[in-house]
Amino acid sequence: MHDPIADMLNRIKNAGNAGKELTDIPYSQMKESIAEVLFKQGFVTSYAKKGKKVQKTLEVGIAYDGKNPRVVGVARMSKPSVRYYIKAADIKPVKNGYGLMVISTPKGIMSGDEARKGQVGGEVLFKIW
What we know:
The two termini are 24 Å apart. Strand 8 (100-105) and strand 9 (108-111) form a beta hairpin. The model has no long low-confidence stretch (mean pLDDT 95). This protein has two domains: 4-69, Ribosomal Protein S8, Chain: A, domain 1, CATH 3.30.1370; 74-128, Dna Ligase, domain 1. It has helices spanning 4-17, 29-40, 112-117; strands at 22-26, 44-50, 57-62, 64-65, 68-69, 74-76, 85-86, 100-105, 108-111, 122-128. Strands 6, 7, 8, 9 and 10 form a five-stranded antiparallel sheet that branches. It has a three-stranded antiparallel sheet with strand order 1-3-2, covered by helices on one side. A two-stranded antiparallel sheet has the order 4-5. It is of the alpha+beta class. The longest helix has 14 residues, at 4-17.
């Protein structure tokens, strides 16, 4: 696996399209931070670390609007081969406010709105709607 964040996002999106309630993702601290941001914004219903020391997983609950999954699309911005950075003043709403931009900043991983309010820029990880 070359891009674990893209794998995480695709697992969440595919689980929603398949009608699943939960999905398991290989654990890392960065993925847990991303899941926390998605939980705060309502794109997932829950997240929890599961398993032993050797084989930890992150169990993520899929959010739905009625029968439709909350995650409809994902656009990975920074990739392992190409990094994409943004200033706080250049952060714009995603999909007219219906989406979310997730940014890795010096203050941690946060949504685009939080980064703009905190006047901090960073690496744009992905956009989700």
